[in-house]
Amino acid sequence: VTVFLVRLIQMVHIRQAMRCGCLWRQKESNGTTVYCHVGNIAPFSWMRSIYICEEDYKQNGRAILLHEQAHINCHHSLDILLLTFVEALQWWNPFVYKLGNSLRDVHEYEADHHVLLQGISQTDYQALLVRKVLNNTSFAFANNFNRSHVMKRIKMMKHPKSNPWMRGKVLYL
């Protein structure tokens, strides 16, 4: 119940962030709404909304919006809601929290991969990740641009794609 209440409070904070300090909002053709805020908030996405501060939008808007759009396209917010429900039911189970951390890491790897496929330079994107993680003031409940450990994310970007035969071996085992 406590875990669920904490998550509920975080959702209320997200709704407040949507209303307070918004300089402008823009409805994209794909149904996503981008909210540009004053101040220095870390970029994040929730359901079909992307929140970004004006400075980030001006300096690195394309890369950040691609990253957050990947979260939206992959429905990561629904995964987080399901995970929250499972954590509320299985609060005593330590493996649920490990699963949650792993799921969030996979979400970030998927979003990073999507950004790199769209033509953003890998070195520029990695430098952006490092800069953003140093200024982390974020909502833990939402899909967050600087969620997982940056070193893991950078290693994953450099990791070569798995051989299909290796996947077959794992499936066989």
Observed structural traits:
173 residues, alpha+beta, five-stranded mixed β-sheet, 7 helices, 5 strands
Protein model, in words:
The protein is an alpha+beta fold. The chain has 7 helices and 5 strands; from the N terminus they run αββββααααβαα. A 5-stranded mixed beta sheet has the order 1-2-4-3-5, with helices on both faces. Helix 1 (2-19) packs antiparallel against helix 3, helix 2 (54-73) crosses helix 4 and helix 3 runs antiparallel to helix 4. It is globular, with a radius of gyration of 17 Å. The protein starts with a helix and ends with a helix. The model has no long low-confidence stretch (mean pLDDT 84).
Secondary-structure-based class equals alpha+beta
- Helix count, DSSP H or I runs of 4 or more residues: 7
Distance between the termini: 39 Å
Catalogue the unreliable spans.
none
Identify the strand order in the major beta sheet.
Answer: 1-2-4-3-5
Largest sheet: 5 strands, mixed
Rg from Cα: 17 Å
| Mean pLDDT across residues | 84
DSSP strand tally: 5
Helix content: 55-70%
Order of helices and strands: HEEEEHHHHEHH
Shape: globular
